Amino acid sequence: MSSTASLGRRAAAEFVGTGALVAVVVGSGIQASRLSEDVGVQLLANAVATVFGLGVLIALLGPVSGAHFNPVVTLASWATGRRSGDRAGPHAREVAAYLPAQIAGAALGAVLADAMFAEPLLRWSTQERSAPHLWLGEVVATSGLVLLVLGLNRAGRAHLAPVAVAAYIGSAYWFTSSTSFANPAVTAGRALTDTFAGIAPGSVPMFVVAQLGGLIAGLALFVLLFGRRAAASGSAAAAAGESAAVPGPAPEPAVPSAPAPVPVPASPPAREGSARP
Questions:
Q1: Tens digits of per-residue pLDDT, 66-75?
Q2: DSSP assignment letter at 118
Q3: Which of 59, 78, 75, 58 lies closest to 18 in space, CA to CA?
Q4: How far apart are CA 34 and CA 262, in angstroms?
C-alpha cells in the first residue's frame, strides 16, 4: 500500500470504516421506515444517506488504508497488484488483516445502529432475499463496483473515488433488483438486524456467491477494457511516475568564465645608461 501507516492502523481504519458504513445503511433504513410508510421514500432516504456517508468515509480514511471497506475490493486490488507487479497494491498479509477487520466492523456497525434506535442489539433478520433475479442484481452491482475502482486507479483518477464510488452505489440502489449490497462483509453485518436494511441469514450465502461472481466478472471487464499490464512494464511505469513526480535538484547557477588576460604592453626599450633591475 502507498500509505505509510502501520498494518495495524490500516486494519483499524478498515474496521472503523466498514462499521460506520453499516451503521449508516442500517440506521438510515430504520429512520426512514419510522418516518414514512412509502417503501419508495424509504429506499430513497436510505440511498441518499448511504451516498453521503460512503463518500465522506472514503475521503477520510482513503489516505490511511485505501478505504476498501469491502472484501471484494480488497481481493480485486490484490489480484491485479499481483499480476502487474504493483508494489502499491495490498500484499497477502494485508488481505489477511483487512478481511477479518471488515467483517468484524460490519457486525459492530449493525449492533451500533440498532442501539441508537433502541432496537434489539442482536436479532437475526427475517427479510428473505432469495431469488435468481436478485442474485443477478448482485453480480451486476459488484462487477460494476470492481470495474470502477480498478479503472479509476489505472486511469490515474483515484482521487475521484469518494464521489464516483458513492455515486455508483447510490445509482445501483435503484437500477439493480437487489438494491446493491455488493459487499460480503456488509451483507453479513446486515443479517444481524431485523430492520429495513436486513437480510435473512439463509439468504446470505447465495448473495456472497453472487458477489464473488461479480468480482470475477469485474476483473474480466477490467482486463477487456484497460488491458493487461506486465510486471516489468508496471514497475517501469511506477518508476517513471516517481521520477516525474519528484523534482530534481535545482540547476546550478551559471559560473562566469574567467576573464581573458589583459595584454600587458611591452616595456619600452631601455635607454643607454639606464639601470636594469
A1: 999 999 999 9
A2: T
A3: 58
A4: 97
